[in-house]
Amino acid sequence: MSADERAGRPDEFDLWRRLTLMVGQLNQSLERTLASEYQISLPELMVLNELRFGHVRGTRVQELSAAVGLDQSSMSRLVTRLENKGLTTRVSCEHDRRGVYCMLTPEGAERCEQAEARCRDELTGLLDVASFDDRWASLVARLRHTAAGATP
Q1: What is the dihedral of CA 35, 41, 42, 47, to 10 degrees?
Q2: Number of neighbours of residue 88 by Cβ within 10 angstroms
């Protein structure tokens, strides 16, 4: 018997717990795909995506931290990894010598576009499967309902 069944009707905590578990499983699957096919991690793809749609002159590392949900130290290491892979480059700010901006390289933009498209396809398939699992079906339905433009 699951915790939800013992407690009766699931409340927000139960839904949050199920959502966390589902997202964890989805992330693991996406991580495997990205690592094997594109040699990047999911957080790296998130940063590449932020840069792809960010300012043409680059995005401050602090802004990337906030957009992706990583602390400054983790973001700095991630940006270094991306730079070592030739996917990003760092540029200094003309107005503030302490400011560091990050920009996509042409290779980074191409890999981001390909990896994002692959993740979208993979996620659709994973959610299709999850929609038939009693643990995830209601969460998938809510997610898709919201993504379709309806208010939750």
Answers
A1: -140
A2: 28
**Distance from chain centroid for Cα 9:** 31
- Phi, psi (degrees; rounded to nearest 5) at 72: -60, -45
Cβ neighbours around 32 below 10 Å, total: 12
What does pTM read for this prediction?
Answer: 0.84
Contact 8, 20 (CB under 8 A): no
- Contact (Cβ atoms closer than 8 angstroms) between residue 121 and residue 114: no
Cα 150 to Cα 140: distance, rounded to the nearest angstrom: 14
Tell me the one-letter amino acid at 22.
M
Mean pLDDT by 10 residues, the chain (152 residues): 56 88 95 97 96 89 92 93 96 73 95 97 94 89 86 52
- Amino acid letter, 9: R
Distance CA 147, CA 152 (A): 9
